[in-house]
Design brief:
Blueprint: H1 6-22, H2 26-42, H3 48-68, H4 72-109, H5 127-143, H6 151-159, H7 172-179, H8 190-221, H9 228-259, H10 277-283, H11 286-297, H12 307-325, H13 329-353, H14 364-386, H15 390-402, H16 413-424, H17 430-441, H18 445-462
Helix pairs in contact: 1-2, 2-6, 3-4, 3-5, 3-6, 4-5, 6-7, 8-9, 8-16, 8-17, 8-18, 9-14, 9-15, 9-16, 11-12, 12-13, 13-14, 14-15
Amino acid sequence: MLFPTTDFAIFFCLVFLGHWWLNHNPRVWKPFMIAASYVFYGWWNWRYVFLLAAVSLITQVAAIAVDRQHHAKRRTLALALGVAATIAPLLYFKYYGFFTVNVTNAATSFGLHVAPPLIQVVLPVGVSFYTFMAIAYVVDIYRGDFEIASWVDLFLYLSFFPHLVAGPIVRPNELIPQLVVRRDPRQIDVAGAMWLILGGLFKKVVIANYLAGAIVDPVFGDPARHSSPEVVIGIVAYAVQIYCDFSGYTDIAIGVAKLLGFRFPQNFDRPYSARSVQEFWRRWHMTLSRWLRDYLYIPLGGNRKGSARTYLNLMITMLLGGLWHGAAWHFVVWGGLHGAYLAVGHWKDGKREAGQLAEPPDTPLVHWMQRLATFTLVCIAWTLFRADSVATAVALLARTLTAWRLPSPLVTTPVLLAISAGLVTQFLPHRPAERLKAALSRLRPVPLGITVAGVLFLITTLGPRGVAPFIYFQF
């Protein structure tokens, strides 16, 4: 069930009414919300609900097993077995085909005949996201950062439909405590929720969907048919598309959760205004960045074991982060490239701290040069992310240099305006937006409803026909 659809609008209206009607009775409200979330998830394929229930069951059993162990070695063993069991469904559904194909190819290159059974497995929507949330729960129990939740709370934590299919990745301490308090409908920030939902719809429907059809899909589909300007603009357009698509989805998710009385963590903070790749990852998909830091990078040793080990830990973290996004080598290379960016940035920071490298001048011109350099590096990496193979990505990057004299019919004024709209939002001051939200919050229900209806009409008018799936659904 996609957010910007009539199906979801009807579903949410029914859930919204049931949620606030049953809010005073947790024993009824929690099963109702679990059932609603399972309906939401099963809308794509009803078989998926059994996988979600199985992961929830495994997670709670693993957490209880860890919590009952008081001997350090047994506790660690229970954690390892629990995490392995929790992640096993993800490994099977997402990586089995990738593993078998590469094992077969590697064996063939050595003259060996290895033919593991090749099974066509459909990747369930959202499995990567709720698996990471499940792992966070088990690890937090192991660390003593969180106590065992009830079975009902754990099932609702993993299945809660606003975050279920594409995040944000919500930690146990960010959501489970909210499940045990009674929400006051008078305290709901309706204007703030509608701001997020309408803004997310605009970014997704008007900007992301338009850029995908107008230039991104044609350019990445057949680079050889397009000029250098089209390829360059196509790559930049994809950077804007994926930002507007993914941040649009999470804005809608956070807004929907707000209408139900829940607070989700922020997931994007103007990432293309970053002046370094390190800063970019503090602003892009922030809940994933923090997850990788707290549950992978720091347990590997972080930066506590010398520079060489730090670079290795950064590379391992980003390689696995790339593989999390997709079972294909171009995602792995994308992650490795970002790992290299981060290692170089860490090396430069170390040199500056030691006084061996001068600090760049603290001037607006230098800041903008740093932003441009960072955006360029990120766009080069996005080419690997969007292309269907490493070879296609290399061909695209080579095409940016070799076909400047060809016509560029895809570089149109609407395309440039859509790109500009996506990028300008990264640099607008916060105050005008806050004033607009404050004005929206002062509207009475009827004027607020008219305003929302007007914005929805504008979105449907400006956006292309049809509803394209969100990019991160495939992850």
